[in-house]
Amino acid sequence: MNQLPNSIEARDVAFQLHSYMDARKHEENGPLVIEKGDGIFVEDNNGKRYIEGMAGLWSVAVGFGEKRLVEAAARQMEKLPYYHTFTGKTHGPSVELAEKLVAMAPVPMSKAYFTNSGSEANDTAIKLIWYRSNALGKPERKKIISRVRGYHGVTIASASLTGLPNNHRSFDLPIENILHTSSPHYRSMKKDGESEQDFAKRCAQDLEDMILAEGPETIAAFFAEPVMGAGGVVVPPEGYWEAVQPILKKYDILFVADEVICGFGRTGNMFGTETFKLEPDIMTLSKALSSSYLPMSALLVNEKVYGPVADESHKIGVWGHGYTASGHPVAAAVALENLKIIEERDLVGHVRDISPTFLKRLHALSEHPLAVESRGIGLIGAVELHHDEMSKTPGVLGARTNMAFHEGGLISRNMGDSMAFCPPLIISEKEVNDMFDIAEAGIETISKAL
């Protein structure tokens, strides 16, 4: 028998397939091994500390090493480590969390349904929407519209919603009945001389034109993030939502707000729905719901969605859908404690307080010769870079900049050539400045090398 590799890096390369990686390149370079975290920092297995400028994956709201979440998990583990929510069974944490989320919702919601990731939440939303159309006797109403550059997950259905090419290539996606309308990225999509408001109206007109071309009676729902995350942190232009929402109402199209990144304080309100005055019929939630300490996600649905679904389940005798870990008691207990921390420490207010410093430093990056634009709101943002000689291979400049940040002690994420910043909500003003000091130095290092 061959001897197993000794180091964790070698074992990783030998046995693990990673998400969002060039698998062959990973075999050559190996992983970054993170061993522990505290506050906004994580530390690798060589003792190097990094500012986690992405809050993990847009998600660790209360920071790393929060003992209250560890203790909440331990208490629930001892009491009831697992039970399901199939066939009318339940337990305290799932009931309390459902009640809490429905009460927190910024628009009237009827029921919560628990899943394990944002992808599963959006996938389930699609199934609910199709089920509802059948319940209403409208089987032709199955098409769903999302947006170019939108991100909604990686399951077969949610990856189809996602409007990013690499989530479709070689996967035989998107599936049938998923359509993509214009991205609301003003700088890259505007016409010469077009104002933000005129651009927003054109995006809305593109949406209406698609609805009319396909047939309004065939369109079931529109999915959108209040602020696009993995598509490059695209903040909608002035007037965008004011132009889009009336079109959805005009044609009686359900609106799904994907709050997986925006929810629980990221935009300066508890939900992006509040920030942009949205009126969704379904909200999908994850990430900061539990600060990703344990997998947890949810859908909130209003009565317009729930009523026909409930009637159809009565007609059939069952709503034939569910996940083994839906409403998992330990994950639900952690989510409840996480929400208590967000409220007790007024982290939403803290985001509002710290956002001016965050945005000032973010926008200062756009003054660098390598930068073409900065985009941000609340405590989420990105700076987009460009260099003529590297423009033929998008993403290479971003990847090099990412490595420069890494060398300086900052974990970011390049989405193409856009560098993202989405730190834990607990970050202090000093730590914001420290983070952008490293980013400035990293961009300057790359600039000099070029």
Automatic annotation (TrEMBL):
Keywords: Aminotransferase, Pyridoxal phosphate, Transferase. It comes from the Bacteria. Pfam families: Aminotran_3. Its cofactor is pyridoxal 5'-phosphate. GO terms for molecular function: transaminase activity. CDD domains: OAT_like (cd00610). Belongs to the class-III pyridoxal-phosphate-dependent aminotransferase family. NCBIfam families: PRK06105.1. This is Aspartate aminotransferase family protein. It comes from Roseibium polysiphoniae.
